[in-house]
Amino acid sequence: MEKLWRKNFINIEPYTAGEQPKSDDIIKLNANENPYPPAPAVLEAIAATKADGMRMYPSMDAMPLKQEMAAHLPSLYGVKLAPENIFIGNGSDDVLATAFRAFFNSDKPILFPDVTYSFYPVWCELLKIPFETPAVDGDFGIDPADYAKPNGGVVIPNPNAPTSIGRGLDFVRELLEKNRDCVVIIDEAYIDFGGESALKLLGEYENLLVTQTYSKSRSMAGMRIGMAYGSEELIQMMYAVKDSYNSYPLDNVAIAAGIASLRDEDYFRSSVEKVKTTRDRIAGEMRALGFDVAESSTNFLFAEHRTLTAQEIFAHLRERGIYIRYWNKPKIGNRLRITIGTDEQMDKMMAAIKELM
Ligand code: PMP
């Protein structure tokens, strides 16, 4: 019998993340996680959480973490911001979803590239936001001119994912100049691996929101810490949305862990450098084997082989316990996205690719 209550269900296809294997033997290069541990002080801060940290509710807006962030922004990104310019949530996915809800309420479509983070269309479906996806060019380049049409908002990752390609501040500035009347979100999930942060432009553009995460460069994907930086007005609006459905997103352990990570800037920089050095070495080795590898400003590579198909490389590596990412989608159907692991992991991957050849 037809169950009438089902007709009110939402009709949505959720975002699919990289597979999470059960076995520890797997070399996991499919979710852009960092292969190195977080700073030692992070684990110490987690262990030091006292009973009160569990018994009591955390700060509603993770204020101690925002204060610590504000103190480190000058040395990390060369900008000075107040805690009032910072919003914190459970990873940048939570932060982005909150921003979509807060800012994308126009009848006009929001704009994002056709090849980009695949969560954007999912939030649009969920929140009933109309959207259009200007096409990237043959080299996966984004043309700011495509974002000059009437729209209800713009969201672009810089560097872009899954293409790994980063653009300079001139590009972001051009986007902002063409979009004075809507909120422009620059998703900087990968900014620490290359490129200049758009945080520098916040003073000039009140409609700019920059999002970042501790999941990649700070090795804390499991802790779920993400943030947005913007004018006080934008940040207040995001808190109004957050406080309308989830008042206490970050727990006390995450707040303590985030503060500890910020305090060890040397560790942060050396861990990011290690990933970048491995990335550049592997990109070179892959090119020598006949891969076209996009110039990466991230902790992953976006590559296509001259003769072997992405599907066969993906399947071959998977059989050997090496997980990378491949999408059977237009434009990127023959491309692989490979997260940078440790040197040892990457050497094993290269050996497996050579074996296939
Ligand atoms: N933006 C982009 C472009 C990403 O690739 C990711 C990672 N999947 C995120 C945002 C979200 O990361 P997190 O929620 O772990 O901060």
Task: Summarize this structure as a short list of keywords or feature phrases.
seven-stranded mixed β-sheet; Aspartate Aminotransferase, domain 1; single chain; binds 4'-deoxy-4'-aminopyridoxal-5'-phosphate; alpha/beta; 13 strands; 37% helix; 357 residues; Aspartate Aminotransferase, domain 2
Q: How is the topology of this model organized?
A:
Blueprint (H helix, E strand, L loop, with lengths): L26 E2 L11 H8 L3 H5 L7 H15 L8 E4 L1 H13 L6 E2 L7 H9 L3 E2 L20 E5 L11 H10 L5 E4 L20 E6 L12 E4 L2 H11 L9 H12 L1 H24 L2 E3 L6 E6 L4 H10 L2 E2 L1 E2 L9 E4 L3 H14 L1
Parallel strand pairs: 1-11, 3-4, 3-5, 5-6, 6-7
Antiparallel strand pairs: 2-8, 7-8, 9-10, 10-13, 12-13
Helix pairs in contact: 1-8, 3-8, 4-5, 4-7, 9-11
The structure holds 4'-deoxy-4'-aminopyridoxal-5'-phosphate.
The site of 4'-deoxy-4'-aminopyridoxal-5'-phosphate has 12 residues, from helix 4.
Model description:
This protein is α/β, with parallel strands linked by helices and 357 residues long. It has 2 domains: 17-38 and 266-356, Aspartate Aminotransferase, domain 1; 40-263, Type I PLP-dependent aspartate aminotransferase-like (Major domain) (Aspartate Aminotransferase, domain 2). It is built from 11 helices and 13 strands. It has helices at residues 40-47, 51-55, 63-77, 91-103, 119-127, 169-178, 232-242, 252-263, 265-288, 310-319, 343-356; strands spanning 27-28, 86-89, 110-111, 131-132, 153-157, 184-187, 208-213, 226-229, 291-293, 300-305, 322-323, 325-326, 336-339. It has a 7-stranded mixed sheet, sandwiched between helices. A 4-stranded antiparallel sheet has the order 9-10-13-12, covered by helices on one side. A two-stranded parallel sheet has the order 1-11. Helix 3 (63-77) runs parallel beside helix 8 and helix 4 packs across helix 5. The chain starts with 26 loop residues before the first strand and ends with a helix. The mean pLDDT is 96. Bound molecules: 4'-deoxy-4'-aminopyridoxal-5'-phosphate (PMP).
